[in-house]
Amino acid sequence: MTDETLTRLRLDISYDGTDFSGWAEQPGRRTVQGELQAALARVLRIPTPQLTVAGRTDAGVHARGQVAHVDVPASVWEAEGERLLRRLAGVLPPDVRVTAVAPAPPGFDARFSALFRRYVYRVSDAPGGVDPLRRHEVLWHRRPLDVDRMNEAAAALLGEHDFAAYCRKREGASTVRELQRLEWRRESEHVYAATVQADAFCHNMVRALVGALLAVGDGRRPPEWPAQVLRAGVRDSAVHVVPPHGLTLEEVRYPADEELAARAAATRRFRVLERAAE
Question: Of 157, 237, 243, 264, which has the fewest CB atoms closer than 10 Å, so is most exposed?
Fold first, then answer.
């Protein structure tokens, strides 16, 4: 990049995560970030830019509503403008799309300004297995599931908690999160969708929560068990982290433009539970 004025762009992104080693760049591996950055560099004729993303999805996880930002020279954006979206479509592989691109409001940060991320995990308990046309986005569960039992267990997990029992711990990172929504619904015969929404997620949190609820849904554990694991505060070997392919990032929500910078500043602070800090 040169020293000229930069324009921050917001990109809305969708991808099929099946053939990607996740979002984040990794040497020698095909990643969503790598494909997008290479496409931007090619189309804009600039050194490879660095994307900042709302949620760094794992290998195999899909997205319909991913959001990222990138800073590019203002003159480059002025020259490309509305052509950029169509030009990116011409060079990106078919399993990743930029669905919208525009200058971001002042204070916008794709990661830290977000109010919440909403994921959906899809499971089928069809006796004969998953519809072959949906095998890359729906998990097959071999035992029949009871949605009412899973929702009973899910309700006890809502709110702000330390989700250490459902996260892969990372040094120096907080595991305190506000789980705003966790509920199951029947999408079609034998296909169930878990909506999981939080202000942020720690590593493996969604897939561990789903794994615990499936154990309740098929009768292996009582509805009280997931909340007991949460209160214990340590990883439980009985919590199975379900495979990534059933998971899709559906939405990232942001506050009003005038609140973006304040939200980003608040999110950057290290979080602890109030009662734990007393």
Answer: 237
